[in-house]
Amino acid sequence: MRRAVCPGSYDPATNGHLDVIERASALFDEVVVAVLVNQNKKGLFAIEERLDLLREITSELPNVRVDSWQGLLVDYCVQNDIASIAKGVRVVSDFDYELQMAQMNRRLTGVETLFMPTSPEYSFLSSSLVKEVAAHGGDVSHLVPETVHKRLLQKFA
Hints:
It is a single chain. By secondary structure, the protein is an alpha/beta fold. The protein has one domain: HUPs (Rossmann fold, 3-Layer(aba) Sandwich), CATH 3.40.50. The protein has helices at residues 15-27, 47-57, 73-79, 92-109, 127-135, 146-155, and strands spanning 3-8, 30-36, 64-69, 84-89, 112-117. It has a five-stranded parallel beta sheet with strand order 3-2-1-4-5, with helices on both faces. The longest helix is centred in the middle third of the chain and has 18 residues, at 92-109. The mean pLDDT is 95.
């Protein structure tokens, strides 16, 4: 079975994230969307909220499951028999950073990283940008799944 993990903070999940997850699900038998827990960062959404939102927006993808992890992603991969990491890259600076991580991950455990260029309509999109615009009352409804948009409106009401 070909398995991959799509890691991220997903705070919040965007249409760009969903695009990468959907594309990865067409390439692999199973895709795990892993919300990486960083105790040093205070997110807008709690980990459980992110997991719930991701489960809802990926519910139409039968080969996708959602999980969380604290620690090295490659340790998660080894413990869960996952050979590949699927990552979306938006710009060259993303690639520069992600390439170093991919090389380190491969060196540590042999886990390979697949880079997928972001679809052009999402090349500018980031969770941080969505949060900033939403916090100032801007319309982000076209940038995030409907469920996420509703929760953002509740957070910033």
